[in-house]
Design brief:
single chain; 244 residues; alpha+beta; 2 domains; eight-stranded mixed β-sheet; five-stranded antiparallel β-sheet; 30% strand
Length: 244
């Protein structure tokens, strides 16, 4: 599961590449470490039929099953302490920190956000996976090459009202996540579960942002070819070199 990535390019640069309006965000600095629930830039459709850069919170709505299970654990803990509670209220206020990665695109929960109006491009120059195969758990950073060229994750987004953090209470926000798939050989050596769906060519960006229904773009949910990624950093929480 990818829960950390970097954007070394400026907003102006990736907006130009995606043929999007950068709006007032052109002077925003690079983000060398994007974590779950951070506000990060994505490219969405705008109301005029073009594309625009927007800052959304990373983490799509979790499934009702996941929230029910989390609330049930809290209920068990309260019950063990002999404390009274209203389970419906507990469930309503269960914090949903969001789901960052979407793999099961056949799920009813995710299908509603796979159509054109909900698809987006998430700019990236490198991404991180923990070294689970080697057992060190150190962060392994991958990019297309040492120069960290621009690419985009195949993303989805939606407006949503929920409790993200207990301290915030219920909030209305706009959130995003991106698709994952099986790992290619470079990622699999360190993290064999999955890798993000990465779109590297303008034709792929346009296809993802087209008005084609999901079945006609579903083929984009695939790993990069073996040999397409390089390890560019290790053991760090931010890909600082990418910003140089």
């Amino acid at each position: 599961m990818c829960n950390l990535y970097s954007i070394a390019t400026s907003v102006a640069e990736f907006a130009r590449a995606a043929r999007a309006d950068g709006g007032s965000f052109h002077n925003q600095p690079p983000m060398t470490g994007v974590y779950p629930d951070y506000a990060a830039p994505v490219v969405t459709h705008d109301t005029a039929g073009g594309r625009a850069v927007r800052y959304l919170r990373w983490g799509m709505p979790s499934s009702s099953q996941a929230l029910f299970q989390a609330a049930s654990k809290r209920a068990d803990a309260l019950r063990a302490k002999g404390q009274a509670f209203d389970f419906k209220e507990l469930l309503r206020r269960e914090p949903d920190r969001g789901t960052t990665n979407i793999r099961n695109t056949s799920s009813k929960h995710w299908r509603r956000w796979l159509e054109p109006e909900s698809r987006c491009l998430v700019p990236m120059t490198s991404f991180c996976e923990p070294d689970q195969v080697g057992g060190s758990r150190q962060n392994i950073w991958f990019a297309l090459d040492e120069s960290r060229p621009l690419a985009f994750f195949a993303g989805v987004w939606t407006p949503w009202t929920c409790v993200r953090k207990t301290s915030e209470g219920e909030v209305a926000c706009e959130v995003f996540g991106f698709l994952t798939t099986e790992a290619n050989v470079e990622v699999r050596r360190h993290h064999d579960k999955a890798m993000p769906v990465i779109l590297t060519a303008p034709a792929e960006w346009d296809a993802w942002m087209s008005d084609k229904p999901w079945p006609e773009v579903a083929h984009l949910q695939r790993p990069l070819p073996d040999g397409a990624l390089k390890i560019v950093n290790r053991g760090v929480k931010q890909d600082e070199i990418a910003a140089v």
